[in-house]
Design a protein that fits this description.
The chain has 254 residues and is α/β, with parallel strands linked by helices. The chain has one domain: TIM Barrel, CATH 3.20.20.370. 37% of the residues lie in helices and 14% in strands. The protein has 8 helices and 8 strands, in the order βααβαβαβαββββααα. An 8-stranded mixed β-sheet has the order 6-7-5-4-3-2-1-8. α4 crosses α5. It is globular, with a radius of gyration of 17 Å. The protein starts with 6 loop residues before the first strand and ends with a helix. The structure holds zinc ion (ZN). Zinc ion (ZN) binds next to β1.
Length: 254
Amino acid sequence: MIPRPAQYLLRFDDLCPTVSRTRWQRFLPLIEEFGIHPILAVVPDNMDLELEQSQSDPEFWDRMRAMEAAGATIALHGYRHLCNSKGAGLVPLHRHSEFAGVPEETQREWIRAGLAILRGHGLNPRIWVAPRHGFDRNTLRVLSKEGIGLVSDGFARVPFRRDGLTWIPQQLWAPVEKSNGLWTICVHSNTARGSLVEQLRAFLGGHAGQFTSVDRVLAEFQPAELGPAERLYETFALWRIQASQMKNRMAHKL
Ligand SMILES: [Zn+2]
């Protein structure tokens, strides 16, 4: 059943001790003021220079623990966020990724190491967020064996089962008013413009009551394999996103 009115989840990507502190801190008052239970996608052992935006924050892990205790859900966001693989993934939005196409044994090592790092910091990672949407069936098999049964990805309007895991779709990168469905809005705080912060504040002002949490989603939905109509919807949604990516790339080249 597609929920009506629409529900929303908020997800923050690329969190690690060197996340831009000033840029990340723009979002914290919103989370608190509107009582949001976001997904926090944490990179366990960041090696990606693009995510080194501030001096390493000695209080980062404390803050993540406090936010989890307040109702946030911790996601495993890859391992080192180094996107050197050109393998084909299940959600084809980028040419390079960290995981898609990497041998299963290596993926297992990375996922185990990543989970151990997050758990070593007292966090309880429960959901997978792939850097650049890059993952394949081997990734899902390993995650499932390591006890992670949730994926934040895909473009349907409801959570669904696929390849043995529950997928909670992530379809938006800014707030958009929808009449029905469950929508995850993904925010990259390092690169988000001030206008997105304002847009989010305005949206939360009118829709805070429609924001849900991973726990509520799991309690309220009974995810099943998608039927043909929703699979078709998902395919068209993917095409739309790919088309707008292509348009952006062309615009950058001009
Ligand atoms: Zn990322």
